[in-house]
């Protein structure tokens, strides 16, 4: 029978998931492998900086720490490189304390702050006459926030001869849960292939604060539902998304939702359509 679960293996390999990545020794090794990847990407591109937005969520906490470790190691080898952490709040961020805790943990070489509110509001104002109910307008504005953060990160990267880092991983990739050319746009994505629990394991292995390791994931883009858990939007728990990607048993209803979302968002994981 052709069930949704039967797509798990095909999707797992398309998203480069490694189900054997568990246990402290493997996680330690994986951290080293990903740091080497970041270092090699910097060296081979002859760039001198990494730029990443730090939200206070576990993905950017983990990605940011790997970046800082990579540039410190490069400097020890005589290659000059720095990590620029960006705070990109929309006005006052409700969980700013988590973002500050992430920065205290990462100890980035540089911190730059850009309040994206002015740019986002100015753009949205130009679309004030567009027909849309409040929920649709709020959703569209959420994507504008993510794309404005992308613009801010590339602006700094241009100034400092740097690369923009993304935090996409397999559990977000499978759901297409990112803004196309927003947080999905980057030059390197060092968390590629990880399921959410593996991201948390890496964060824990790096001694990230427990509150951040366990923090409920949120895109936090919508003002009508501040801090809305991702799982609410997915209609599926990350536990089930991870299990599906790892080839573990998942109820068929969850598998169906995941596969449906995966197929509908294929365009987000590909280059633009071309003749
Ligand atoms: N079949 C197709 N072939 C080629 N292109 C296609 C297409 N269908 C839509 N498109 C294009 O894609 C656009 C829709 O994609 P997009 O603009 O991304 O918008 P969309 O996928 O509708 O929304 C983004 C989703 O990602 C979530 N998100 C965003 C940012 C961060 C995070 C997070 O976890 O932190 C989560 C957000 O909450 C929302 O649910 C369309 O306007 C169109 O331009
Ligand atoms: N307020 C913010 N300030 C700086 N960067 C942000 C902000 N919001 C989002 N970002 C960037 O967008 C990325 C995508 O957001 P996403 O919510 O998926 O990750 P996260 O917040 O790090 O972790 P989680 O998914 O667990 O909430 C973040 O990793 C970060 O680089
Ligand atoms: Mg978040």
TrEMBL record:
Keyword Signal assigned: no
Residues the record lists as binding deamido-NAD(+): 147, 180, 187, 267-268
Positions bound to ATP: 53-60, 167, 196, 218
Matches recorded under CDD domains: NAD_synthase
Catalysed reactions, semicolon-separated: deamido-NAD(+) + NH4(+) + ATP = AMP + diphosphate + NAD(+) + H(+)
GO terms assigned for molecular function: ATP binding; glutaminase activity; metal ion binding; NAD+ synthase (glutamine-hydrolyzing) activity; NAD+ synthase activity
InterPro entries: NAD/GMP_synthase, NAD_synthase, NH(3)-dep_NAD(+)_synth, Rossmann-like_a/b/a_fold
Entry annotated with the keyword ATP-binding: yes
Biological process annotations from GO: NAD+ biosynthetic process
Annotated ranges, domain NAD/GMP synthase: 31-272
Pathway: Cofactor biosynthesis; NAD(+) biosynthesis; NAD(+) from deamido-NAD(+) (ammonia route): step 1/1
Subunit structure as annotated in this protein's UniProt entry: Homodimer.
Physiological role: Catalyzes the ATP-dependent amidation of deamido-NAD to form NAD. Uses ammonia as a nitrogen source.
Stated family: Belongs to the NAD synthetase family.
NCBIfam families in UniProt: nadE, PRK00768.1
Name under which the protein is recorded: NH(3)-dependent NAD(+) synthetase
Species of the source: Halopseudomonas xinjiangensis
Gene that encodes the chain: nadE
């Amino acid at each position: 029978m052709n069930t949704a679960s039967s797509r798990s293996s095909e999707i797992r390999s398309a998203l480069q998931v490694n189900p054997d990545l568990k246990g402290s020794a493997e996680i330690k090794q994986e951290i080293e492998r990903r740091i080497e990847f970041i270092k090699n990407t910097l060296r081979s591109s002859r760039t001198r900086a990494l730029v990443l937005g730090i939200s206070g969520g576990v993905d950017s906490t983990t990605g940011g720490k790997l970046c800082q470790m990579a540039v410190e190691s490069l400097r020890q080898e005589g290659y000059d490189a720095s990590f620029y952490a960006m705070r990109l709040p929309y006005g006052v961020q409700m969980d700013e304390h988590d973002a500050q805790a992430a920065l205290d943990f990462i100890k980035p070489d540089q911190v730059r702050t850009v309040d994206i509110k002015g740019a986002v509001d100015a753009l949205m104002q130009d679309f004030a006459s567009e027909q849309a109910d409040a929920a649709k307008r709020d959703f569209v504005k959420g994507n504008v926030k993510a794309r404005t953060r992308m613009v801010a990160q590339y602006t700094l990267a241009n100034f400092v001869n740097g690369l923009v880092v993304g935090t996409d991983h397999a559990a977000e990739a499978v759901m297409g849960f990112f803004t196309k050319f927003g947080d999905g746009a980057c030059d390197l994505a060092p968390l590629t292939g990880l399921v959410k629990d593996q991201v948390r394991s890496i964060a824990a292995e790096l001694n990230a604060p427990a509150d951040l390791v366990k923090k409920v994931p949120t895109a936090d883009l919508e003002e009508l539902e501040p801090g809305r858990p991702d799982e609410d939007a997915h209609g599926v728990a990350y536990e089930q998304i991870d299990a599906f990607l790892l080839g573990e048993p998942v109820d068929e209803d969850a598998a169906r939702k995941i596969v449906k979302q995966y197929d509908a968002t294929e365009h987000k994981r590909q280059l633009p359509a071309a003749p």
